[in-house]
Write a structure and sequence with these properties.
With 72 residues, the chain is mainly alpha-helical. 57% of the residues lie in helices and 6% in strands. A hairpin with a 4-residue loop joins strand 1 and strand 2.
């Protein structure tokens, strides 16, 4: 392939790579927001405060940690 051909192909490849990476970032961001993780309470940006915790206050694991003195 001649250098002139590379200069015609590379901008298209760069745009395609940018679209793929942006799409991957967006999909990961949506997935993470919809699947809260224990220990990281989700944050409600509209109200500017943490959302209620997605687990029950009477959780056996949380009660055991509280009895041991671990931070919850």
């Amino acid at each position: 392939m001649t250098p002139a051909k590379y200069s015609e192909v590379l901008p298209g490849l760069a745009k395609a790579l940018l679209l793929v990476l942006t799409g991957t970032w967006a999909a990961t961001n949506v997935y993470d927001r919809r699947h809260p993780k224990l220990g990281h309470p989700p944050f409600d940006w509209r109200r500017a405060r943490p959302r209620p915790r997605p687990w029950a206050a009477e959780s056996q694991t949380l009660l055991a940690a509280e009895m041991r003195g671990d931070a919850v």
